[in-house]
Q: What sequence folds into this?
């Protein structure tokens, strides 16, 4: 349930006045619920402008004439109407806890709205519901909770790798992550660095009507985060502590050959090729008790601890919340950890009845230390460890970590391996980030219903990255030790400021209510960056810059990134009797990123709602307690197109030598486009909110369709032009989908309550067009093609292996490369030969990284003092590109291999399982299977994950100083159910360099990223 | 304050230009800008000569081959070049080396076009301007000449591309490409400085003349070639270095020496202008201890993979007895890690020079040497029937190599002698394929060469038991197929 009581209270205060009425008498009383007073409850005389609010003890006093009706309401309670009887001066009202949250207030862009009157597609989650989960970031906590929002954890690196996608939004090259708005401030930094305990609630804005007030940044959806405030009249002190451990379950890891199996494979490799078996592999059994599980050696059981102290006080004129947190997570890969020290101070001060000011200040400091675990072969330590021969010793005879491993050349050991545990332990890869997020505002309410507000927000981010590779270690294969010691220092300083000025006016005249908003804002972002790369250190113990013999020119540079945004915006909301709802909004953004001939974008939206349940024909229906139809249409933009993309840049470091001198060289390296603009998304949404049996069962359904046009794309152009691409707005992608969310109070007795919250979403997309003359864009393993969904896996279609000489003779082959037992590919273009490359080769779409549907559910139970919750989420029908197979199933025996390769093709009589082909013939034969993208890499990655199980017990009736104490145990990522066998994380999606979510054009690639651990913690939540 | 900012300062506030990079709006305004622009047009030559030209021009001939390492995959692109086994589909092939050669040549062309399109709008010293224009014309012609020899008909871009629709052009017939090359070089010769006035390493009028002569020779325009080349021979700016080994840049003081007509400039060190082609030419796997005596570095490292550009038995046999160039050009190295029973491999030694850091050397790449000018002269004279005169030029080259005057007689005899002389004098300088190509001797030379490899793979560095792929020597086309990736983007091919 959403409890923004304070804000709701404020809003209600704004929207109505307190006035007296001539012939009435004074009525007073206490509003209570379950024996406790309800402060802040609204008491209105029905049909009038008269109203008041209860004080801290629930007291109210109001003028009302006999026969008039008092309407008493408060967020979270069922509204009650009481008639005033003549002569009665004291009316005590008991409110019942509402099973429905319709009267609650939700945060929307530039304000808040009563949920019942919302006409857009939005969903909220209370911070309280998330607090038990032992993870570092808010996105992790939201997994599975939001309909239409797919959240994947692409890597287990502490503090990293959360990929959030609202309604499947994609862009070719612009960003796809939603806009995060913290206390009204669209932030530029990383939302995951915010301490989740600071969060009061989160609202996700999904359709254009909800988001369009964020204009050119709204197309990917908006996530509104509101931080904590005090409860009116109360002072609360809360301590929340948990500690526990994380580990990577054995189950689900990629199964690699052990030492004996590998030696056996090598023996068979040489035998099958008719070559002498190297001495090292003549007797595989000798490795029986000498296995070296390099991957396992990288892992550890790691502690995780979090402390949060929250103090809130809302008394008199001051409302303060202070949250201090320490989060300390060691990683499950050796030498990785993540620490966050955070503080937030939120203060509102009412200078007078008409003037409020406020300041939020949230500094935090994050230290993130992770070896370069993720990435492709050679650069990602985990990938390297996976495919290192298990016959190579991790420890020497004295139990020390080895330095270096190499078998004789005749064993096919073409790469030398350092000890990866040393790589992880000795290489520093640390980022220290200092953030301050600050919001200040002043608000003036000269007359009833009118408010002027000005805000000034800043975000300062200072990031220090330090990499030091000492001469004794390397993260790469085939680098001799000692190597050249290298240091990288990368320092970034960011400053964002935003000034917003708004005026709102709300008035109710009879049955007509309206609210107007208008405003303008300016925002600026600047990042200064300095990177210094130095190498050749005299002494590994002294990695200072001056300790290096050489500064690497190419790796040493400074940079500036800057953008500005100026906006004007307005919104009008109207409703008639609270059942016919209409909202229109418009925003105009001018951005420095847009070309000089296309500087301003306009983003309008309209939405309407009809509360059917307020109509006579439904009022009498006993089952339907609430029904609302919603519809919206609007246009939003995506301005993540790069800061200087419109300009033709001259690179003046294309230097040349003449004789022994360096001469500076300069060339135009990109083409300018003064018409460059934002990506435009037009979205239509139709929704139904339904409450049954006094809202015991509530149901939300949304259908949406979106068309994204003017996609920013660096259109590839022939390089005969001297350029690789032209930045342009092109093409069209259509998205559509259905979202269902259900909330049911399955059991509601005084002792036992069971609440189920479930959602399922179906998101689809299709590329309608790309640029003129371009109907496809190739990725490394993907294609984006007109008429198809975005980013599909693309490659050869495997039909099996050539089973025998006859099969080979009667099938299309790759001239010079196909043999009996080698991979048999489909002749897609029917030209009789198998070719790879070019537009008319034999490649086809071989898989889809997008799911058919994603779903999630949350079960909450309370039984007397016990509570429990189970959160789960899943994804069905998505596939992954098991890219690491190009090494982990390299049939040349150069690397360790997946265990499945034991059952490969060996002869027509022993054709194996059919997944892997013959080893005979060397790279010329095996290279096809390995180096040509093909369907053998594509595997189903549907999954169902029990995200969290929490069990708690609350102690009441404690000594006076402690209001309540709750102890709980929580398990995160408890079980993953999947058929995917390529690694433990079916949500993985990585670029070759180990960064990001794989990029829009190349999602769903498995390069063996940092595993996502199972976490078990025990916690205490004590309120004083 | 905010309101006034909004009302008055909007456009200023919204104009944010890149601070750390120049943009085209502010560049191309001064002489220095154009000097830098023409400098950048030289830059792709490093990539071309370090990484590609030897694959397309030398290993794609009977001079060099790869040393097969069956354990090492993803080597088809270079093997296909050496094996004449490029699989062509619709006139295109996805060979990465062909693709990159194409792209680097067009990068030179685009940068030269940028200079040529804008330089006349800016006023500065006429000699300096002429020298810049001349270099741009020379470089554009050089790039088109490479393209014409590799591909025949190619798109002819002569102005900078400004919008997307101009980025692809139809293929211009080979003859039109040659006409443009001739026109560019003819224009460049009078405005370029000569070797004595030009900064060492830049194109000179002598470079342009030699290039134009080469272009004419390719078209068998013998008298035009003679006419344009004569001043190079008679001008007194060039002579042969006293010994063959000194012709190559070898050390810092020997760069752009008196024999050098045009060479691609590399610089050892951390400036990012170094080469590493000597490493690319090493047979593999080679250990640090085996590599150190050859490179002389303080930090030798093991190199794995498959070695390329290994001298064939054919080129080794092509040296006449007593030819001093043989030992200068080809060395021998013992690879303990080799999978062959004979672990001795020849390697290209002529560019050898000591340097300090592994994989980082500053040897220049010779594009035109005076020795080739002399052989060009010999050829153009012989082809015009001036056989005796021709022999004197040939003998100058032979004499330095410690060889007696040619015994060849008659036009045909001398033609063959010059052809053979070019092979050994210019061995490993990426001339061999073009010589075979322009003389129409592909089938005559390459077919038997392929048969020798198939008959005796061990002699061509295959490990015992390994055999050439079944499709070797199946594509003996004069031109390379167009790069598939470019074909994908162009509507014209």
A:
């Amino acid at each position: 349930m959403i409890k923004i009581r304070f804000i709701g209270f404020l809003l209600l205060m704004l929207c109505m006045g307190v006035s007296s009425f001539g012939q009435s008498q004074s009525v007073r009383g206490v509003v209570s619920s379950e024996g406790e007073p309800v402060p802040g409850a609204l008491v209105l005389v029905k049909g009038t402008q008269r109203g008041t609010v209860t004080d801290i003890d629930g007291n109210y006093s109001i003028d009302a004439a006999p026969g008039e009706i008092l309407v008493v309401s408060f967020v979270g309670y069922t509204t009650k109407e009481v008639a005033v009887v003549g002569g009665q001066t004291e009316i005590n009202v008991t409110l019942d806890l509402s099973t429905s949250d319709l009267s609650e207030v939700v945060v929307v862009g530039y304000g808040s709205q009563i949920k019942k009157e919302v006409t857009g597609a939005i969903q909220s989650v209370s911070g309280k519901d998330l607090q038990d989960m032992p993870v570092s970031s808010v996105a992790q906590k939201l997994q599975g909770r939001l309909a239409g929002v797919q959240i994947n954890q692409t890597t287990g690196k502490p503090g990293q790798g959360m990929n959030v996608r609202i309604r499947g939004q994609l862009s070719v090259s612009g960003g796809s992550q939603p806009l995060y708005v913290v206390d009204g401030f669209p932030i530029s930094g990383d939302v995951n660095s915010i301490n989740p305990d600071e969060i009061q609630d989160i609202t996700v804005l999904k359709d254009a009507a909800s988001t369009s007030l964020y204009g050119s940044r709204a197309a990917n959806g908006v996530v509104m985060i509101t931080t904590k405030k005090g409860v009116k009249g109360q002072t609360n002190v809360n301590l929340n502590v948990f500690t526990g451990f994380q580990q990577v379950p054995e189950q689900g890891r990629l199964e690699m050959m052990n030492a004996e199996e590998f030696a056996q494979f090598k023996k068979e490799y040489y035998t099958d090729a008719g070559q002498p078996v190297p001495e090292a592999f003549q007797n595989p059994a000798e490795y029986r008790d000498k296995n070296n599980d390099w991957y396992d050696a990288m892992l550890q059981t790691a502690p995780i601890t979090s402390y949060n102290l929250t103090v809130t006080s809302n008394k008199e004129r001051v409302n303060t919340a202070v949250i201090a947190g320490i989060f300390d997570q060691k990683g499950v890969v050796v030498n990785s950890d993540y620490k966050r020290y955070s503080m937030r101070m939120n203060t509102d001060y009412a200078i007078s009845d008409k003037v409020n000011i406020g300041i939020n200040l949230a500094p935090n400091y994050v230290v993130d230390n992770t070896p370069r675990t993720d990435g492709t072969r050679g650069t990602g330590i985990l990938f390297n460890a996976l495919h290192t021969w298990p016959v190579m010793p991790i420890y020497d005879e004295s139990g020390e970590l080895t330095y270096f491993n190499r078998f004789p050349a005749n064993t096919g050991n073409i790469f030398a391996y350092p000890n990866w545990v040393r790589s992880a332990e000795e290489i520093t890869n640390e980022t220290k980030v200092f953030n301050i997020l600050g919001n200040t505002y002043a608000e003036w309410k000269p007359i009833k219903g009118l408010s002027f507000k000005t805000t000034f927000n800043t975000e300062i981010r200072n990031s220090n990255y330090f990499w030091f590779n000492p001469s004794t270690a390397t993260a790469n294969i085939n680098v001799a030790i000692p190597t050249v010691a290298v240091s990288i220092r990368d320092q970034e300083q960011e400053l964002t400021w935003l000034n917003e000025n708004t005026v709102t006016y709300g008035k109710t005249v009879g049955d007509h209510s309206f609210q107007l908003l208008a405003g303008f804002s300016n925002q600026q972002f600047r990042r200064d960056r300095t990177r210094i790369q130095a190498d050749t250190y005299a002494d590994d113990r002294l990695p200072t810059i001056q300790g290096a013999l050489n500064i690497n020119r190419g790796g040493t540079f400074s940079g500036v990134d800057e953008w500005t945004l100026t906006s004007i915006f307005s919104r009008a909301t109207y409703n008639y009797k609270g059942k016919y709802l209409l909202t229109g909004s418009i925003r105009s953004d001018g951005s420095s990123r847009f070309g000089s001939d296309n500087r301003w974008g306009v983003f309008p939206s309209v939405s309407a709602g009809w509360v059917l349940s307020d109509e006579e024909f439904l009022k009498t229906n006993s089952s339907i307690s609430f029904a609302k139809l919603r519809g919206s249409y609007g246009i939003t933009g995506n301005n993540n197109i790069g800061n200087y993309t419109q300009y033709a840049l001259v690179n003046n470091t294309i230097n040349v030598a003449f004789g022994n001198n360096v001469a500076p060289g300069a060339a135009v390296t990109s083409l300018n486009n003064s018409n460059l603009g934002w990506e435009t998304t037009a979205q239509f949404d139709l929704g139904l909110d339904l409450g049954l049996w006094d809202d015991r069962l509530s149901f939300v359904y949304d259908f949406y369709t979106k068309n994204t046009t003017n996609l920013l794309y660096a259109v590839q152009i022939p390089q005969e032009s001297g350029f690789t691409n032209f930045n342009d707005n092109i093409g069209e992608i259509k998205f559509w989908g259905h979202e269902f969310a259900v909330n049911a109070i399955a059991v509601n007795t005084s002792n036992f309550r069971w609440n189920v919250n479930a959602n399922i979403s179906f998101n689809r997309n299709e590329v309608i067009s790309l640029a003129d003359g371009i109907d496809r864009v190739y990725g490394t393993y993907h294609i984006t093609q007109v008429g198809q969904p975005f980013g599909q896996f693309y490659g050869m279609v495997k039909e099996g292996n050539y089973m025998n000489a006859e099969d080979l003779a009667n099938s299309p082959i790759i001239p010079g490369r196909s043999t009996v037992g080698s991979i048999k590919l489909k002749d897609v273009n029917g030209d009789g030969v198998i070719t790879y490359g070019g537009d008319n080769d034999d490649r086809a779409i071989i898989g889809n990284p997008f799911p058919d549907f994603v779903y999630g559910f949350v079960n909450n139970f309370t039984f007397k003092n016990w509570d429990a919750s189970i959160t789960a989420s899943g994804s069905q029908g998505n596939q992954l590109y098991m890219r690491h197979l190009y090494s982990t199933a390299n049939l040349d025996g150069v690397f360790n291999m997946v265990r499945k390769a034991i059952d490969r093709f060996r002869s027509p009589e022993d054709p194996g399982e059919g997944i892997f082909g013959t080893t005979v013939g060397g790279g010329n034969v095996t290279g096809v299977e390995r180096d040509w993208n093909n369907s053998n890499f594509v595997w189903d990655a549907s999954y169902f994950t029990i995200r969290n199980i929490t069990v708690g017990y609350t102690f009441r009736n404690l000594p006076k100083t402690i209001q309540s104490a709750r102890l709980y145990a929580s398990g995160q990522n408890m079980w993953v159910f999947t058929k995917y066998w390529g690694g433990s994380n079916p949500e993985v999606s990585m670029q070759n360099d180990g960064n990001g979510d794989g990029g829009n054009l190349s999602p769903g690639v498995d390069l063996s990223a940092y595993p996502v651990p199972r976490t078990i913690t025990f916690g205490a939540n004590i309120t004083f | 304050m905010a309101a006034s900012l909004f009302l008055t300062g909007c456009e200023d506030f919204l104009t944010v230009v890149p601070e750390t990079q120049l943009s085209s709006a502010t560049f191309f305004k001064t002489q220095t800008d154009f000097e830098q622009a023409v400098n950048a047009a030289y830059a792709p030559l490093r990539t071309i000569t370090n990484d590609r030209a030897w694959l397309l021009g030398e290993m794609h001939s009977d001079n060099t081959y790869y040393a097969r390492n069956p354990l090492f995959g993803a080597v088809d692109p270079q093997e296909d070049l050496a094996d004449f086994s490029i699989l062509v589909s619709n006139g295109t092939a996805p060979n990465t080396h062909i693709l990159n050669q194409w792209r680097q040549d067009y990068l030179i062309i685009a940068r030269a076009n940028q200079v040529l399109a804008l330089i006349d709008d800016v006023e500065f010293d006429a000699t300096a301007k002429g020298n810049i224009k001349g270099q741009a014309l020379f470089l554009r012609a050089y790039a088109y000449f490479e393209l014409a020899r590799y591909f025949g008909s190619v798109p002819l871009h002569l102005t900078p591309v400004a919008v997307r629709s101009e980025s692809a052009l139809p293929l211009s017939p080979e003859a039109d490409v040659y006409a443009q090359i001739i026109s560019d070089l003819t224009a460049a010769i009078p405005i370029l400085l000569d070797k004595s006035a030009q900064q060492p390493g830049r194109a000179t009028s002598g470079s342009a003349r030699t290039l134009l002569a080469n272009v004419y020779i390719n078209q068998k325009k013998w008298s035009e070639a003679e006419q344009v080349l004569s001043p190079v021979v008679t001008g007194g700016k060039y002579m042969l270095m006293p010994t063959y080994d000194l012709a190559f840049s070898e050390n810092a003081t020997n760069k752009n020496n008196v024999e050098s007509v045009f060479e691609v400039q590399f610089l050892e060190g951390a400036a990012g202008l170094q080469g590493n082609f000597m490493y690319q030419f090493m047979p593999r796997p080679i250990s640090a201890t085996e590599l150190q005596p050859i490179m002389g570095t303080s930090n030798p490292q093991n190199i794995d993979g498959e070695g390329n550009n290994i001298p064939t038995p054919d080129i080794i046999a092509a040296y006449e007895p007593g030819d001093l160039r043989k030992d200068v050009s080809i060395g021998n190295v013992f690879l303990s890690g080799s999978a062959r029973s004979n672990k001795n491999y020849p390697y290209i030694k002529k560019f050898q020079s000591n340097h300090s850091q592994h994989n980082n050397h500053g040897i220049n790449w010779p594009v035109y040497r005076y020795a080739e000018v002399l052989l060009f002269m010999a050829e153009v004279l012989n082809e015009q029937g001036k056989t005796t005169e021709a022999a004197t030029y040939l003998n100058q080259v032979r004499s330095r190599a410690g060889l007696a005057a040619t015994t060849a007689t008659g036009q045909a005899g001398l033609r063959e002698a010059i052809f053979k002389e070019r092979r050994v004098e210019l061995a490993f300088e990426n001339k061999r394929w073009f010589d075979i190509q322009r003389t129409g001797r592909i089938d005559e030379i390459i077919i038997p060469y392929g048969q020798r490899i198939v008959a005796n793979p061990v002699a061509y560095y295959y490990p015992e038991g390994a055999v050439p792929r079944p499709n070797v020597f199946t594509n003996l086309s004069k031109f390379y197929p167009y790069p598939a990736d470019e074909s994908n983007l162009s509507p014209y091919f």
DSSP finds twelve helices and 54 strands in chain A. Residues 642-675 of chain A form one domain. The longest strand of chain A covers residues 512-537. Chain A touches chain B through 95 residues (CB under 8 Å).
